[in-house]
Structure formats: C-alpha cells, structure tokens
C-alpha cells in the first residue's frame, strides 16, 4: 500500500492542473515530487529553500492575491518553527492556506527530536478558526486533501502520517463515524489509531467512534454515543495525550462523565529507535491500550506512559 505522503504530490499536482487558484509552496522538502508540476506551472510551484518562516509568509502573500496556497514540509517545521507567522501572517491577516505536514509525531525517529511534533495540533488549538484533518489511510488523505483545497479561504491543517489503518472509511471532512456500538463507554479513535483501538477493544462492550477530522470537534456525535453508553470517554489520539479532552468535556458539559486522554506522552524519548518502538513506549499499541482502557472503565488505575 502506498503511503499518505505518496498520494500528496500526485493529488495536488492534478489540482494545480484543474484549478488556476491553486499554488504550492515548499521549503526544500518534497521538491522532487513536484518537478513535473513545476515545469507545467512555474509561477505556481515555489521552493523557498530551508526557510520555514518564509514558507508561511509567502503562502500568506499568495492568499492575499486570491490564490489557494498549499504549504508543505515536516510537521515540526510547518507548525512549530514558524508558529509566529502562522499566527500573524495567516490568522491576523485573516487569510487561509492548506498546511500539509509529514512525519507526524515520530514517524521518522532517525531524524531525532527536531523532526518530531507531537504538540502540533495542541499548538494550533491556541488559534482561532483552524480545521484539522487527521486521515487514517491514504484514500482518506486524498479525499481530505481535496476537501481542504476546495474549502475556499479557510485555514486547514492536513496531518499526514506513515502510520495507517488497513482500510479506509468514508470521510467527508466533518462527521465522526460510529464503527462499533456498546453500552459501557465510548472510545474515540483518531486517524491512524483506529486499527489499534479496534484490536484493543475486541470483545469489550464499548462504542468505538472514528474521527479523521478533529477540528471542529464533532460534539454532536460524541453526545449521541454517550446517550446510549456510560458517559465514560477515552480519546486515543496520535499526538499529544489530552489534546482533545477539553473539547470532549465541553461536548458533555451538562452530562455526568469522565474523560481519559491517551496519546503521545510529554516525556521526551531520547533513543531514536523505530516507529513501532515509539508507539509501544507511549502505550499506543493494542496490548497497552486494552490495559489502560479497561482499567479506566472499571475504575482502576491507568498506567502512565511517555
């Protein structure tokens, strides 16, 4: 199976051909994949080099002229390093862009901590008006990329990952899907966490929801699920643990409930290791998830990871 990032350049290259408003801005990363598109559209495929602040600033400038810019690099260089430009050049000037990241939280461990960004979605949460897509399969990534580019002048973040579920679900850029129904709690799996959550909850009497779009948070779907189950909610996210707990609490503000946020821990893991080793170290493998979910739902102690 190809990866989400394998889909990125072909999809956006086709959009460049189809829509004269679309432009692509790169910061050295991914330039080879857009070489053919750059020959066809030299004025709308721009490489600013290793200058991530300029990446955002140039994208904002293109948006001010009426173009729909797609900006791409690793998540740590797209959200964290140029965050002031994301806040001011896009947010303060009230213009939109599509930010498409790679490497997710720790997809390339050999790159070290400079190439890891578990706090990217939490950081964007400090700003107003962002849509955040977290696809769990390359087919979903393709659909959500098209949604993002077509979203007029909205500010959209598309978080691509090397991790993926075995099959795609129909995603529309808005709604959360009910994958399994139960009565003893609700587990929300975000993006590439779905397969691990389904394995971890096999045989448990819980509702499993799937979210490939996390901002805006689908509060209505969570409320519906909580009506038919105990209002105990577990969020399993592929980035910083607890990123969406406030959104879940707000959704259930008038309902007695408990929320557990599982995801990447705050403690830095200083050995590079492999992607799967990082998943296990943060307690996001099926065995660890099952232990932590059942512990929470039965009122026991939940083991901390990371």
From TrEMBL:
User: What sequence ranges are listed for the domain Transketolase-like pyrimidine-binding?
Assistant: 2-168
Q: Does the keyword Metal-binding apply?
A: yes
Q: What is this protein called?
A: 1-deoxy-D-xylulose-5-phosphate synthase
Tell me the first and last residues of the signal peptide: none
In its UniProt record, a GO molecular function of this protein is: 1-deoxy-D-xylulose-5-phosphate synthase activity
The source's superkingdom equals Bacteria
This protein's cofactor list reads: Mg(2+)
User: Which family, according to the similarity comment?
Assistant: Belongs to the transketolase family. DXPS subfamily.
Q: Pathway, per UniProt?
A: Metabolic intermediate biosynthesis; 1-deoxy-D-xylulose 5-phosphate biosynthesis; 1-deoxy-D-xylulose 5-phosphate from D-glyceraldehyde 3-phosphate and pyruvate: step 1/1
Q: Which PANTHER family match?
A: 1-D-DEOXYXYLULOSE 5-PHOSPHATE SYNTHASE-RELATED, 1-DEOXY-D-XYLULOSE-5-PHOSPHATE SYNTHASE, CHLOROPLASTIC
Task: Quote the EC number.
Answer: 2.2.1.7
Provide the species name: Streptomyces adustus
């Amino acid at each position: 199976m190809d990866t989400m990032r394998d889909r990125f350049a072909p999809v956006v290259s086709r959009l460049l051909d189809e829509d004269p408003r679309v432009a692509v801005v790169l910061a050295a990363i991914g330039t080879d994949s857009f070489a053919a598109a750059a020959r066809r559209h030299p004025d709308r495929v721009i490489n600013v080099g290793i200058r991530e602040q300029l990446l955002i600033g140039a994208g904002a400038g293109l948006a001010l002229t009426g173009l729909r810019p797609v900006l791409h690099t690793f998540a740590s260089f797209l959200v964290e390093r140029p965050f002031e430009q994301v806040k001011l050049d896009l947010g303060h000037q009230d213009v939109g862009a599509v930010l498409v990241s790679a490497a997710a939280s720790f997809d390339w461990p050999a790159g070290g901590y400079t190439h890891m960004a578990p706090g990217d979605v939490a950081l964007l949460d400090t700003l107003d008006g962002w849509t955040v897509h977290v696809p769990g399969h390359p087919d979903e990534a393709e659909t959500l990329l098209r949604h993002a580019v077509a979203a007029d002048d909205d500010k959209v973040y598309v978080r691509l990952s090397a991790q993926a579920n075995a099959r795609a679900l129909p995603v529309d850029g808005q709604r959360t899907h009910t994958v399994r129904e139960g009565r003893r709690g609700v587990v929300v799996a975000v993006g590439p966490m779905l397969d691990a959550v389904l394995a971890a909850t096999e045989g448990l009497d819980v509702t499993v929801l799937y979210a490939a779009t996390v901002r805006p948070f689908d509060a209505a779907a969570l409320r519906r699920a909580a009506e038919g189950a105990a209002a105990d909610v577990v969020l399993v996210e592929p980035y910083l643990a607890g990123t969406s707990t406030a959104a879940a609490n707000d959704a259930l503000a008038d309902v007695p409930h408990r929320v557990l946020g599982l995801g990447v821990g705050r403690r830095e893991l200083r050995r590079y290791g492999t992607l799967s080793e990082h998943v296990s170290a943060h307690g996001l493998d099926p065995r660890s998830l099952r232990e932590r979910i059942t512990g929470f739902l039965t009122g026991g102690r939940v083991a901390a990871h990371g």
